[in-house]
Design a protein that fits this description.
2 domains; Serine Threonine Protein Phosphatase 5, Tetratricopeptide repeat; 84% helix; mainly alpha; 11 helices
């Protein structure tokens, strides 16, 4: 009997991890789909793949996963106000489940995009307090807080937060994204030397990721412009 319990716990863990990957992928592609060809198609495929997740969940988590899928469909059909209400319902009704934590990040993102920074900050911080055990979602919460700093006129503090995130996840996709965002902050402040140093690091240290190519292109374009101005 104890062996069966251990097996179930391992299966639940794998299901939770897959759910976390699912929501991470949806958010990542939606936020950055111009980087990738066929980004919108990827979102559709990810949402369709949620059906496989739903089938593998235990009863309570199955309902939460189904609600997550319903929220995504609402958003894709343009019913954003109702989607927000549904996200809040999942956060409260399924508190403690992976779905609730993932919805908390998604809802915080929506409030941030709408300029509702205080509400967004509260949700990011709440996630870190209550659910802060999944690296990609911790990254999403911390980078969301950094983005709020920048939006509220604190780009230098935002850049420092992005650099702290990069140090926390060295060599990872999260680190590369944070480094890119820090470079963007310095660029907006007109601190081009710091920006170019970060782009150069991104190009050299993360050459296995697509962002390395974007860093190389940005660096070449900006340095080329500087040469033309001095001629």
């Amino acid at each position: 009997m104890s062996g069966e319990s251990r097996k179930l716990r391992k299966e639940d863990l794998r299901e939770d991890e897959f759910l976390e990957w699912l929501m991470k992928a949806v958010e990542y592609v939606r936020a950055r789909y111009p980087i990738f060809l066929g980004g919108l198609i990827a979102v559709v495929l990810i949402i369709v793949g949620a059906d496989q997740v739903i089938k593998s969940q235990a009863r309570g988590r199955e309902k939460a996963a189904a609600e997550m899928g319903r929220v995504l469909m609402m958003e894709d059909s343009g019913d954003r106000a109702e989607a927000r209400r549904a996200m809040q319902d999942i956060i409260e009704e399924y508190a403690g489940t992976p779905a609730a934590g993932q919805m908390m990040i998604m809802l915080a993102n929506r409030h941030s995009s709408a300029g509702e920074y205080d509400t967004a900050r509260q949700l990011y911080e709440r996630y870190l307090r209550q659910y802060g055990d999944t690296p990609m979602l911790v990254f999403a919460a911390r980078s969301g807080l950094a983005a709020i700093l920048e939006a509220q006129g604190q780009p230098e503090q935002a850049a420092l937060e992005y650099l702290a995130i990069e140090q926390k996840y060295p060599g990872s996709l999260q680190a590369a994204l944070a480094l890119w965002e820090a470079a963007q902050c310095y660029g907006r402040m007109g601190q081009m030397q710091q920006r170019h140093e970060l782009l150069d690091r991104l190009m050299r240290e993360y050459d296995h990721l697509p962002l390395s190519g974007r860093a190389r292109a940005a660096l070449a374009m900006e340095q080329g412009s500087n040469v033309q101005r001095t001629q």
